[in-house]
Design brief:
Layout: H1 3-22, H2 27-44, H3 53-66, H4 69-86, H5 111-119, H6 124-136, H7 140-144, E1 151-152, E2 157-160, E3 169-172, H8 175-185, H9 208-221, H10 232-243, H11 248-255, H12 260-264
Antiparallel strand pairs: 1-2, 2-3
Helix pairs in contact: 1-2, 1-4, 2-4, 6-8, 6-10
Length: 272
């Protein structure tokens, strides 16, 4: 793009960001929808408001071949938002970009395997983090965002803030988790965060990538060859509670699911 066209693009891109904020989109959604506009702009080297229908079809045809369907879906949604709110156009043909409906069943570990995984985690910060995710069924981001103010030792509850869909919930905290969190916090004594980053004086949480790498090392050490991620610990929390007799409605509340149907999928993973 020449300088004039680049100035035009910068203006509409900034409008895109403003519209995302005005529509109350979450930071992760803003990041993904903004990336969609940047990606297609880089692909054609021209502002996306000048693209034709054949251009867009070409872009998505290429994207399907080079990226995951998750990325395709995010770019489709991001561009639909861009055309609707930023340049006031409807691109109904985008409905033809339909990611396949795939519903995979995650690999499951037994409670003894989870215990081994946690016990074999050598670095304290990762060990306590895995305990936290598993014992309370937290998502990765929910665990990373925990602060000292979220822990209520008098009621043994944890206030999970800004979960999926911007929802808060209260989660029971086992005694062993409280002890683990307390002992770990004493190693860094951050004024706010329970799981601060490597530079503990900053206000940023531990790096997600380092957590995933730590888990991968432990899995190799334990010779567990299943596809496991930090989020899997949340699955094990749910599955093991169902096996112990917890009802679906209570589990739904613990997990913060909007729909009971989502929670009910865990019944496919239990042994009972």
């Amino acid at each position: 793009m020449n300088q004039l066209k680049e100035q035009h693009y910068n203006f509409i891109y900034e409008q895109h960001l403003i519209n995302l904020r005005l529509q109350g989109k979450r930071p992760s959604t803003i990041d993904a929808y903004a990336r969609a506009v940047r990606r297609i702009t880089a692909f054609f080297d021209k502002s996306p408001d000048t693209l034709t229908t054949p251009d867009l079809k070409q872009y998505f045809n290429n994207l399907i071949q080079t990226h995951s369907w998750s990325t395709v879906k995010l770019d489709r949604n991001g561009l639909q938002f861009f055309y609707r709110y930023t340049i006031n156009k409807q691109w109904e043909w985008l409905a033809i970009v339909k990611p396949p409906q795939v519903r995979r069943i995650p690999d499951i570990l037994t409670s003894s395997q989870v215990s081994e995984l946690i016990n074999q985690t050598r670095k304290l910060r990762y060990q306590v983090f895995f305990i936290t995710l598993y014992s309370m069924g937290l998502r990765l981001s929910e665990g990373l965002n925990l602060t000292i103010h979220d822990i209520d030792k008098s009621t043994m509850l944890v206030h999970v803030r800004d979960g999926k869909g911007g929802k808060d919930r209260m989660v029971p905290m086992p005694e062993i988790t409280l002890l683990a969190l307390r002992n770990y916090w004493k190693t860094h004594r951050h004024e706010r965060l329970i799981f601060p980053g490597a530079q503990s004086k900053t206000n940023t949480s531990m790096d997600k990538g380092s957590i995933q790498k730590a888990l991968k090392r432990v899995l190799q050490h334990c010779q567990i060859k299943k596809h496991i991620s930090p989020h899997s610990l949340r699955h094990y929390f749910a599955t093991h509670l169902l096996e112990q007799g917890l009802d679906l409605r209570s589990l739904q509340q613990l997990l913060g699911h909007a729909s009971l149907n989502t929670t009910a999928r865990y019944t496919q993973l239990t042994k009972v």
